[in-house]
Amino acid sequence: MSSFTSPLIVTPMPDGRRWKLVRSFTYHVGSKDSGRKVVVHRGFVTDFASVPRLLWWLISSWGRYGKAAVVHDYLYKYHVGTRREADGIFFEAMGVLNVRRWRKYPMYISVRLFGWFAWKKGG
After folding, report:
1. For range 77-95, the mean pLDDT
2. CA distance 56 to 59
3. What is the spatial distance between Cα 20 and Cα 41, in angstroms, rounded to a whole number?
4. Percent of the chain that is helix, strand, coil (3-state, to 5)
């Protein structure tokens, strides 16, 4: 089974919207033995989930899915694999984090439909 193997430790940036990783953390894709992993390095800056402010009443930029959002931001910023693969890893990671279906599916569908803009600009 997929897993996060280290805690996510961040510190806020001066703008109040973004966060910087204090230490690296790792996500194993597929299973811990798959040999595929995403290492998000210390110093990486994230905004967690890029949810439009209009929808914050429904889905905030931070929640149970926070680690999955950071991995997704990292994959988008550095174009690791394809966009479809990055979105699939995001979906898988939300499952590992036990994100409820009513939240996980709309977030996944949103990145599939609208993520092309963020992918194009690199994060």
Report:
1. 95
2. 5
3. 10
4. 40, 15, 45
CA 99 to chain centroid, in Å, comes to: 13
Helix (H) / strand (E) containing 119: helix 101-121
Phi, psi dihedral angles at 47 (to 5 degrees): -110, 15
The packing angle between helices 83-96 and 66-78, to 10°, is 170
pLDDT at 3 over 60: yes
Domain boundaries, the chain: 3-121
Give the list of residues 6+ apart from residue 69 with CB closer than 8 angstroms, or none.
Answer: 46, 48, 49, 61, 62, 90
Q: Is pLDDT above 80 for 100?
A: yes
Identify the residue with better confidence: 16 or 91: 91
